[in-house]
Specification:
Layout lengths: L6 H15 L4 H16 L3 E7 L5 E7 L3 H7 L7 H9 L3 E3 L21 E8 L2 E9 L7 H64 L3 H29 L8 H13 L5 E8 L6 H22 L3 E8 L3 E8 L13 H12 L3 E7 L3 E9 L1
Parallel strand pairs: 6-7
Antiparallel strand pairs: 1-2, 1-5, 3-4, 4-5, 7-8, 8-10, 9-10
Helix pairs in contact: 1-2, 1-5, 2-5, 5-6, 7-8, 8-9
Bound molecules: adenosine-5'-triphosphate and magnesium ion.
């Protein structure tokens, strides 16, 4: 594949590949891949969609639109149309006019008009990870562009796979280390201390001098306290280490786990800056999405569920909508789910609304203050 490139473009590809492979964090790999793909082809717009179960896009990283433009487009792209075709058939699609392509499902009303399109699948090992695509190159994308972006996608896929494996190994290694230390502490140190305590207690009984006896008894007590606090410490050691959890990584995991067994296509999209959200907000947002998504999956019979997360300056907005059967929130018996939703949002100082129409679906909107 590499001998078909002009030397200059081959050099750009190698440099770009090095930049992608040099990233150690998944989100950074995705963003760098999109940037490099734009540089390599000269396309003004680029994006990478992460494909979840049943073809939905569970994450979406784009570049080239200014934030206001992205905002007015609103809903995230779904994993259908051209994007769906890339995932489904696992092959590259290149066209000079998006609207001419038989699989094009059109664009949302506020989407800027886009002409040419180049989309390639990104595989992380044997499984499809997502789609890398570029639009609007003047004069259209060439065969060489296609080969370059395919090569880049291959390298990105390898980098993604490597990071995932590393993460898994790291947490395994840490967990194993902690377990071993906990076991050693328990087996060796606590048992020893315990034996010393027992022996001291025995000695104390034989001592006639009441002052010495009291001193010995106090030592035994302080040893007991030490053992108790060591036990607490060991118990904590056994617990899995706190990983750095971001809203994106939490939702990626949640959506994959909850939606997997169901047929509905779930799409997740983010706007605004999600870096450095407080952990409390990440937890609350994850729980709100969990309750709403689980309701949509279990009760609505929807075939499409959309999750939108928008980080503003002073609050985080969440929108979870389904196209299912809907219900009357004032008429059904509320279970734990709806009650928790309302309580959690309110306790966090945020707001929540549940709009549902029988026959056309449910929209849950929540905001959390930042
Ligand atoms: N997205 C939805 N589409 C259709 N019906 C819904 C939806 N969300 C909730 N409902 C209805 O509202 C009821 C109450 O929901 P709630 O989450 O409070 O309880 P639950 O899901 O039945 O049980 P729990 O959440 O405690 O496991 C549900 O039983 C269901 O009838
Ligand atoms: Mg529920």
């Amino acid at each position: 594949m590499f001998n078909q490139f002009t030397p200059a473009r081959l050099r750009d590809l190698v440099e770009g590949a090095a930049a992608v492979a040099g990233q150690t964090d998944l989100q950074a790999i995705l963003a760098t891949t999109v940037e490099i793909a734009r540089d390599l082809t000269g396309a003004p717009h680029g994006a990478l969609g992460v494909v979840g179960a049943h073809g939905g896009l569970i994450d979406f990283v784009h570049a080239g639109l200014d934030p206001d433009e992205a905002e007015t487009i609103g809903a995230p792209p779904h994993g259908r149309g051209l994007l769906g075709l890339i995932s489904k058939e696992g092959r590259t699609i290149r066209t000079d006019r998006i609207s001419d392509h038989p699989d094009s499902s059109g664009m949302p009303p506020n989407h800027p008009h886009m002409e040419s399109f180049l989309g390639v699948p990104v595989r992380a090992g044997p499984t499809l990870f997502g789609n890398l695509y570029l639009t609007d190159k003047e004069g259209g994308f060439t065969e060489e562009d296609e080969a370059l972006v395919e090569a880049l996608a291959m390298i990105a896929g390898t980098a993604i796979r490597t990071v995932r494996l590393q993460q898994r190994l790291q947490s395994l290694a840490v967990a194993e280390d902690r377990e071993r230390i906990a076991r050693d502490l328990h087996d060796a140190i606590i048992q020893d201390l315990f034996a010393v305590g027992l022996s001291l207690q025995g000695q104390a009984l034989k001592v006639a001098d009441p002052d010495v006896r009291r001193a010995l008894e106090q030592d035994v007590e302080s040893l007991d306290r030490t053992i108790t606090s060591l036990r607490g410490f060991i118990f904590n050691l056994g617990a899995p280490p706190d990983e750095h959890r971001t809203l994106r990584s939490e939702l990626r995991e949640l959506v994959t786990r909850l939606a997997g067994p169901h047929d509905a296509e779930v799409n997740v999209a983010y706007t605004g800056s999600l870096d450095s959200l407080p952990q409390k907000v990440v937890d609350d947002a994850t729980q709100l999405v969990r309750e709403s998504l689980s309701n949509s999956l279990r009760h609505s019979n929807a075939d499409r569920i959309t999750i939108e997360i928008h980080a503003g300056d002073d609050r985080l907005a969440l929108l979870i909508s389904d196209n299912g059967i809907g219900f009357d929130p004032s008429a059904v018996a509320w279970g734990l789910g709806l009650t928790n939703l309302r309580e959690r949002a309110t306790r966090a100082g945020g707001q929540i609304s549940i709009d549902s129409t029988t026959g056309s679906g449910t929209v849950v909107r929540a905001t959390l203050p930042l």
